[in-house]
Queue: 2 jobs
Job 1
Amino acid sequence: MTTNPPAPFPVAAGARLLGEVIAWTCSGVAVTHPALVAALRDAGLDDGVARELAPKHAFTRACKKLSDQRIIRQVAEDAATVRFQFTHESRDGDRFAYTLETLLALDKTTGQVTCDLPGLATLAQEHLDHAIDARSGADVTRVIQKLFDRHADLFPVRPQGGVYFMPDRHTGFVDRVQAMLGRINGQILRFPVPGGTPEGDRSVKESVAAGLAALVDDHRKAVAQFGDDTRDETLKRAASKIRVTQFKIQAYAEYLSDEKAKLDRELTAARDALRQKVERLAAVLAVA
DNA sequence: TATGCGCCGAGAATAAATAT
DNA sequence: ATATTTATTCTCGGCGCATA
């Protein structure tokens, strides 16, 4: 066995990167919504992915904190207000006892809480205000996935997700995601994958091929569902999604090697199925 | 007005880390 | 050794929007 001198980074002249294996963690991240939006904007990312939480939905988060020895149920809702019943739960010997505590109203637009117990109104308002503002690690993960969904491609390394292969063309994009995560104390790990190693090339090929095959499969399933109640717009959108996937298969051809032909075949099958369906629906429509 | 569709949050399932 | 907490993905259902 020969001993190679330590390779400088990046790998070596001529050996280009295929991409990176990345994983992120937002464990324990607690950030306010405005701070998250600011972090996205400062990093040059689309801040539309971090949306506001409507008072109604924030209240369901707040309910978790308010549910100690208490059961909260929605009793009514109209355009402006949602009403909840708070029922106190206590242990009474060998059984539980329940007593009506209050009825609480939530204004869906202002996020204002009202109820006839002043202390409880204040407590509920505090929890609600916090829930409207606060974003958890899970929320940040959702934001990251939406960013990648809209602007880059991530191929799961394992079916459960969490670790992804990212093609090198998106390196600049991850740089921005990394900057964003840095501002909110999240962490992203990035392992460069150089081209030319047998196992690296194989693993990249398999994960990219599996990811693209999943897209093609989605198209196939969607087309199979279409019927005479499907709108023209939906059919057009399906065709456009198929074109996008075709573009991706082309763009990642170098990763796919011998897997490309199979993907091309499957995509063509999905496109033909759509074409046939469109023709059949047009025929049905003409008769009707 | 009804319907399809995307978005969002909840909850289940699962896994891993941490506390008891 | 067991229970609890935390994080993650997946699926489902409700809501609002656009459109026929």
Note: Residues 64 and 72 of chain A are 9 Å apart (CA to CA).
Job 2
Amino acid sequence: MQEKTYTFYQDVYDVARQIPKGRVTSYGAIAKYLGMARSSRMVGYAMNGAHSMVDIPAHRVVNRNGLLTGKHHFETPFRMQELLEQENIKVEEDQIIDFKELYWDPLVELKL
DNA sequence: GTGCTGACTGCAG
DNA sequence: ACTGCAGCCAGCA
């Protein structure tokens, strides 16, 4: 087999793109799905490039606390919250309400 | 090649 | 219950 010419980013984008509407996930979940649970930071870092990819709903990806840590990286810090509200997701104080209910785990949903 | 950064997470106090 | 610190790895200067 040839080495994957892809970058780690592509894998992250692929998972993020599969996040269903009205659902959210955490960086750690994606990282673990990719087999890099300890590199959850890399997921967020990778999403930095996703900013250029309109196909990547980065607003659906938050930290383990359901906090919109990456909102500051959007065009405007209010953009992320508005996008979540458009998904019928309630957000208050930059934190997702009923996060555990809206939580979408690729390990459970995609489950290799 | 070496070093720093970072949209995080988990454990200890 | 909350706060603080250390670990982790890919990408970029």
Note: The domain at 8-102 of chain A is CATH 1.10.10.10 (Arc Repressor Mutant, subunit A).
